[in-house]
Specification:
single chain, mainly alpha
Length: 112
Amino acid sequence: MKIAVLSDVHGNVPALQAVLDDICAWQADTVIVNGDLVSRGPYSLECLRLMQTQFPAAHYTKGNHESYVLRCADTSTDPDSPTYDVDRFADWTVRQLGVAWMISVPSLNISI
């Protein structure tokens, strides 16, 4: 069985497309997105749609950026906050995606 694992896409469609092309050529049996598919980059929604179209059976775990976006969805952005710029990306991601998809993605908890 071939398992492809990718992470930290951060809304970067060209990078995601290059990786997905490799995964298709490699003919992976299972695809796992190990967090941070969205946020920071300009194309969170497009990345999610691309994954759902090309690999509808992919498995997802929630990364720190999905968790951060969900936290920001519950609070308003404070222009005086030192995290203001990052918060704006999170707000924009929420406006593109909503929160339903991110809430449904499980968090991966590993103890070492």
